[in-house]
Amino acid sequence: MARLLPFQKHKKFISLKKNILLLSVTLAATVFVLQGCLNDKGSVPLPPETFCDSLDVSYNLHVKPLAETKCANSIGCHVSGGSGPGDFSTYTALSGVSQTVKIRLGLPATDGLHMPQGGTLTQEELDIFLCWIEDGALNN
Predict the structure, then answer these.
(1) pTM of model > 0.70
(2) In this predicted structure, what is the pLDDT of residue 139?
(3) 92 with 130, same domain?
(4) For residue 74, is it within any domain?
(5) Is 140 contained in some domain?
(6) pLDDT tens for residues 75-129?
(7) Which in 61, 77, 91, 119 has the greatest CB count within 10 A?
């Protein structure tokens, strides 16, 4: 065992050493936990911009049929009188909440706010929604 120098035997030095160690461990644990929380709620990975350019998403041809089958009619959430707010079979309602849709599509399936409730989207379907939103949620 290493010999202690006279000042190292002092109780205040030992207490300071313990406090620094405790602070370091607490800080490391906090960073670890916060990083885990951030990853759980991570953002939706956007398709590459060139992908969206090549996809050429149209509301009428791509988004509306997808919204009607995945958000409105299939599980009855986003239809007039449905369990979810807004009738996503209309352009006005869906475009008005497009940024919220983007966020909720990216939540983990275990999150109560994840959309679609009780279902999932394929990567292609997710890309269609995300590209449409990233392109300005146009009525085209």
Answers:
(1) no
(2) 94
(3) yes
(4) yes
(5) no
(6) 567 665 555 666 777 898 888 988 988 998 888 888 888 888 777 789 899 999 9
(7) 77
